[in-house]
Amino acid sequence: MRLVSLALLAFASLLAAGPAFAQAPLTEKNVSMGLSLAIIEGALEQCTKDGYKVSVVIVDKGGNVAASVRGDGSSPHTLEFARMKAYTARTRNQTSLQTMKLLEDPANAFIRQIPNVVGVGGGVPIKAGGETIGGEKDEVCANAGLAKVEAALK
């Protein structure tokens, strides 16, 4: 009988604590499809103007591909490499060029062990306010693409 009383008491305690465990839904900023397409358009315009044949990949806050385009005449490998640069920018919260510079110091060699992180310039984090919400590659083109949507990211 004492065991049953203890079990009921524990269950009643859990029910009373239930509201304390309840949480409001998370609200977070992320990269939308419209934002992704606008950034891609701006990046491709700049790269084409500069004579580069590139692919552009946008990753979202979770590092997942939000949108990607393999540019006319670009090599087949550029799409995957663009994804890795964008992923690096997102997960490291810095440009992939900054990651490359960090990797010059042997003390930071552990960074190379993170899957899909590359130490090659070109990836740029997408920030809304001060929060990194995605990533994109190639740096000059990416910054041109981001400039197109700058007002929406504030």
What does this structure look like?
- The protein has helices spanning 2-21, 33-49, 78-92, 96-103, 139-148; strands spanning 55-59, 65-70, 123-128, 131-137.
- By secondary structure, it is an alpha+beta fold.
- α2 (33-49) packs across α5.
- It has a four-stranded antiparallel β-sheet.
- It is built from five helices and four strands, in the order ααββααββα.
- The radius of gyration is 22 Å and the shape is globular.
Secondary structure: elements and pairs:
Blueprint: H1 2-21, H2 33-49, E1 55-59, E2 65-70, H3 78-92, H4 96-103, E3 123-128, E4 131-137, H5 139-148
Antiparallel strand pairs: 1-2, 1-4, 3-4
Helix pairs in contact: 2-5
